[in-house]
Amino acid sequence: MPLTIKDAYLTEGIVSADGMPEYRDNVPTRNSDAVQRYVEAGAIVFGKTNTPYASGDWQSFNALYGTTGNPWDPARTCGGSSGGAGAALAAGMTPLELGGDIGGSIRIPSRFNGVFGHKRSHGIVSQRNVVDWQEQIGEQDLWVVGPMGITARDLRDALRLLVGATAEKAIAWRVELPAARTTDVTKLRVATCFERPGYPVDAEVLALLQGVARTLAECGARVDHDILPDIDFDENFSLYLQLMYAHMSEDTPEEVRRSMAELLRPLARGDEIVASMGSSLTRWLTVHERRLQLQRKWLEFFEDYDVLLAPVLPRPAFRHDEAPMGKRTWAIGGVERVMMFDVLFWAAFSLVTYLPSTVAPAGRTGQNLPVGVQIVGPYLEDETPLAVAAMLEEHCAAFEPPPGYG
Fold first, then answer.
1. In the predicted model, is pLDDT for residue 242 greater than 50?
2. Peptide bond into 31 cis (omega under 30)
3. Which of 112, 129, 276, 388 keeps 20 to 30 A from 369, CA to CA?
4. 197-222, pLDDT tens digit by residue?
5. Burial class (CB in 10 A: 0-12, 13-18, 19+), 404
6. What would the 3-class secondary structure string for the chain be?
């Protein structure tokens, strides 16, 4: 199968720059582990897809390759950091891609471009090797590598190729993901959470998400609305931001670190978070322990439900905006809001606790812009949200190419 690869990942014999001019002549002699798994299964990598600088934005523009537009409306962003991947899929340039997600970077482009994407459970696919971390072999917190495609089955099949141990662990370590809890929509147990206090969703987007839940109910699924685990989601968000900053504090380019610090400082104790997370292992371990306690509550929640439906973002794809990330705003319900808080809140919804999350199309707005739904599943039960994505593909909305790309 011929396919493209997000430019963040090393590809043998093809320039791999991750949007950074300083890597414009970087031609790797090996593949990233995940790329190699595709290649060993028969993939022929014929090109790379655009990212923001060092994959550090929810848009895809850089000084090396310029700005990638959205096939549904070139004046709007295709998302990031796997934005070129999402645009290439929607435009029919490639049948399969490889994304990465630490702040929504698989889910956001999938949603903006009307395709499928899967943020898998943390720890089951090798992260090695990203362009600017070529020699790094340690497992990174939060961040995951995962497939993007134009059908739910493609995601499932790709994930099965990608799952596995790194070379050092492969002598004894195996991953056998359990089968989906059900592939019968009449036996499906669904919870929904489409808004949270302080994090409203655009009315048109909300209506489409509610339509997804209604369709599942009409097909025979049990659907309970506004049901959540016993978790303080403001704390969940705060933990995510602290872990994210700790993750970025050493290996990420300075301009990206500054953007994250700018986001943290308006929060309560923001300056303390920035200072402590950059220097204190004890602080990180405390936050990590609290994260695992939240994960346990999710496990208890998924004893009663198979998946939770949530937004990916509160708005459709926005117009290109190259202002600093922390200064971008958008209007929801007529109120101007800081974009980064809304974006990261819904990205952190499942990410901080390592849960799998699949994005599937949910329809389009009156301006013909795609909307997707986030299908959150139990930890290490990735096949379950993927199975629900297949149900939605059959009963609700499947991928459709943008006008002019059919």
1. yes
2. no
3. 388
4. 999 999 999 999 999 999 999 999 99
5. exposed
6. CEEEEECCECECCECCCCCCHHHCCCCCCCCCHHHHHHHHCCCEEEEEECCCHHHCCCCCEECCCEECEECCEEEEECCCCCHHHHHHHHCCCCCEEEEEECCCCCHHHHHHHCCEEEECCCCCCCCCCEHHHCCCCCCCCCCEEEEEECCHHHHHHHHHHHCCCCCCCCCCCCCCCCCCCCCCHHHCEEEECCCECCECCCHHHHHHHHHHHHHHHHCCCEEEECCCCCCCHHHHHHHHHHHHHHHHHHHCCHHHHHHHHHHHCCCCCHHHHHHHHCCCHHHHHHHHHHHHHHHHHHHHHCCCCCEEEEECCCCCCCECCCCCHHHCEEEECCEEEEHHHHHHHHHHHHHCCCCCEEEEEEEECCCCCEEEEEEECCCCCCHHHHHHHHHHHHHCCCCCCCCCCC
Under the banding of pLDDT at 50, 70 and 90, the label for residue 257 is low
pTM score? 0.95
Q: Is 164 left (phi over 0), alpha (psi -120 to 50) or beta?
A: left
Look at the block and give the residue holding tokens 């943008």: 402
What are 181's two structure tokens?
Answer: 């809890």
Within 13 Å and on the Cβ side, how many CA atoms surround 271? 0
Q: How far apart are CA 260 and CA 315, in angstroms?
A: 22
Say which residue the tokens 């403001």 belong to.
234
Q: How far, in whole angstroms, is CA 352 from its chain's centroid? A: 12
